[in-house]
Design goal:
Distance between the termini: 40 Å
Shape: globular
Order of helices and strands: EEEEEEEEEHEE
Strand content: over 45%
Number of strands: 11
Radius of gyration: 14 Å
Number of helices: 1
Helix content: under 10%
Structural class: mainly beta
Length: 129
């Protein structure tokens, strides 16, 4: 059974940091891309970052330079380090997994939540001003 379990969310003041974790099980970790998405109240789910493999990842424009994704293959875990947090980063953060498609497809589709078949339950991040 595929499982993705997020942790690490919380309440932080603007400018602060958090580290989110996504622990994966039930599939061959190295064969999958792991994406982080977020959804704020009343908004659509947004692609934040995607770990394709160790050392290869994508970032959304709104988080580039502030968030860092990393992948620990020994622990089957993907981390999302959130720095310089802003109130507009407040959302439920989800990780999702999908078998790795070819690079040309991934470049166009990594931001699209409907392209990921497995999802975690989400973790709340709240940033106060």
């Amino acid at each position: 059974e595929v499982q993705l379990v997020e942790s690490g969310g919380g309440f932080v003041q603007a400018g602060g940091s958090l580290r989110l974790s996504c622990a994966a099980s039930g599939f061959t970790f190295d064969d999958y891309v792991i994406g982080w998405f977020r959804q704020a109240p009343g908004k659509e789910r947004e692609g934040v970052s995607c770990s394709v493999r160790v050392g290869f990842s994508y970032y959304g424009d709104s988080v580039k330079g502030r968030f860092t994704i990393s992948r620990d293959t020994a622990k089957n875990t993907v981390y999302l380090q959130l720095n310089s947090l802003k109130p507009e980063d407040t959302a439920v953060y989800y990780c999702a997994a999908e078998p790795r498609p070819n690079p040309a497809v991934l470049l166009r589709l990594w931001r699209l939540p409907e392209r990921f078949r497995y999802w975690g339950q989400g973790t709340q991040v709240t940033v106060s001003s």
